[in-house]
Design brief:
4-stranded mixed beta sheet, two-stranded antiparallel sheet, 6 strands
Length: 108
């Protein structure tokens, strides 16, 4: 709508369709990635950093896979909302995991 001399007039253009994001109950494909998923990384409830899932099929297992590649044999991973929490009994292992995850989150 354009305003010319105080008068409103319509001009031809492409239609714009707005989809409300506050109620996604009507979305048929719930696995569709709308933008990106951002998770906060914790080791034993200590915040380490954030990780953004960029690919549609990417999930929290990428963090577990990374830790396995870094030599951590037993990775106890819990996903709660937007938190990925890694549990370990060893304080030394927790510190090593934190270092590795800081590098992981900085490189992604």
């Amino acid at each position: 709508m354009n305003f010319i001399n105080g008068q409103a007039s319509w001009t031809a253009g492409l239609p714009i369709f707005l989809v409300p994001t506050d109620n996604l109950d009507n979305v048929t494909d719930r696995n569709m990635k709308l933008n990106d998923d951002r998770y906060e990384l914790f080791v034993n409830n200590h915040f380490v950093g954030t990780h953004t899932m960029l690919l549609p099929k990417e999930d929290a297992s990428i963090v577990s896979d990374f830790l396995h590649e870094q030599g951590f044999k037993h990775v106890n991973l819990e996903v709660t909302g937007d938190h990925i929490i890694i549990h370990t009994d060893s304080r030394e292992e927790a510190q090593q995991m934190e270092k590795a995850l800081r590098v992981f989150s900085a490189n992604r």
